[in-house]
Design brief:
Monomer. Its EC number is 3.4.11.18. Its cofactor is Co(2+); Zn(2+); Mn(2+); Fe(2+). One of its GO terms (cellular component) is cytosol. GO terms for molecular function: initiator methionyl aminopeptidase activity; metal ion binding; metalloaminopeptidase activity. The protein is of the alpha+beta class. The chain has a single domain, classed as Creatinase/methionine aminopeptidase superfamily (Creatine Amidinohydrolase), CATH 3.90.230.10. Helices cover about 30% and strands about 25% of the residues. It contains four helices and 14 strands. The chain has a five-stranded antiparallel sheet. Strands 1, 2, 4 and 5 form a four-stranded antiparallel sheet that branches. β10 and β11 form a beta hairpin. The model has no long low-confidence stretch (mean pLDDT about 100). It binds 2-amino-4-trifluoromethylsulfanyl-butyric acid and cobalt (II) ion. 2-amino-4-trifluoromethylsulfanyl-butyric acid binds next to loops.
């Protein structure tokens, strides 16, 4: 079932979205050469705790994870595309990092991901991030009342694939609200004009991921969580929680 949210409920979700954005800001500030992914997770825990919010990922155990999730953020570095575990790995110069976080306030969840480079960036990594952000922006722009779910995936794949990058469609976006993962599924790639009719009150996480090598294949790491590009190429993930409103799409995961 798809639950539409009232204006008041969307406001409540924005509070959770602010916490997610605060985590992104704090983690990004702390991320530097020599800092471990575990330390970044600790930074995120502190921000969530101080905001008196809850960590949606901690202990979450979906079918695609080998065990309950042990952290509050996903830390996906270089060839890891999604769900990278906050391990003792220490960041190196030029690492390409995606930080995925979801938090809840008063029982309402928000979910978002940012990507950035630590230290001296490679030109091609900055381009990958830029195109991923443009891909997400195109998806958000299509999240308007009267549109269709397929318009979102079509807009995103047009940008991402148009730039020559690979995309996968098994891990996409999702409805979000009282639970982090709700119906409907939000494909990264779809046919324009097809799928669910978008209505005011629909709140979804839109989360495209791109693989620099141009292939669409991914592999699960032996850690049971990390989803990696099959060709080992660098990958990027970005995400916002977005409300479809009468006035158009509203991003809830901003500071
Ligand atoms: N943003 C990701 C998603 O919606 C985060 C899942 S990580 C998990 O699938 F730890 F919660 F599983
Ligand atoms: Co998500």
């Amino acid at each position: 079932m798809i639950e539409l949210k009232s204006v008041g409920e969307i406001d409540a979700m924005r509070e959770a979205g602010r916490v997610v954005a605060a985590v992104h800001g704090a983690v990004r500030e702390r991320a530097a050469v020599g800092v471990s992914l575990k330390q970044l997770d600790e930074v995120a825990r502190t921000v969530i705790e101080e905001a008196r919010a809850g960590a949606s990922f901690l202990g979450y155990h979906p079918s695609f994870g080998a065990m309950p999730y042990p952290g509050v953020i996903c830390t996906s570095v270089n060839g890891v595309m999604l769900h990278g575990l906050p391990s003792p790995y220490r960041l190196r110069d030029g690492d390409l990092v995606s930080i995925d976080c979801a938090a809840y306030v008063d029982g309402w969840h928000a979910d978002g991901t940012v990507s950035f480079v630590v230290g001296q960036p490679r030109e091609e990594d900055l381009k990958l991030i830029k195109v991923a952000e443009e891909t997400l922006a195109a998806g958000i722009e299509a999240a308007v009342p009267g549109g269709r779910m397929g318009d979102i995936g079509h807009a995103m794949s047009t940008v991402g694939r148009g730039a020559g990058y690979g995309m996968q469609n098994d891990f996409g976006g999702h409805g979000i609200g009282r639970a982090m993962h709700e119906s409907p599924f939000v494909p990264n790639e779809a046919t324009r004009g097809r799928g669910l009719r978008l209505r005011p009150g629909l709140v979804i996480a839109i989360e495209p991921s791109l693989m620099a090598g141009g292939g669409d294949e991914y592999v699960m790491d032996s850690d049971g969580w990390s989803v990696c590009s099959a060709d080992g190429s660098r990958s990027v993930h970005v995400e916002h929680t977005v409300a479809v409103t009468e006035d158009g799409p509203v991003i809830l995961t901003l500071p």
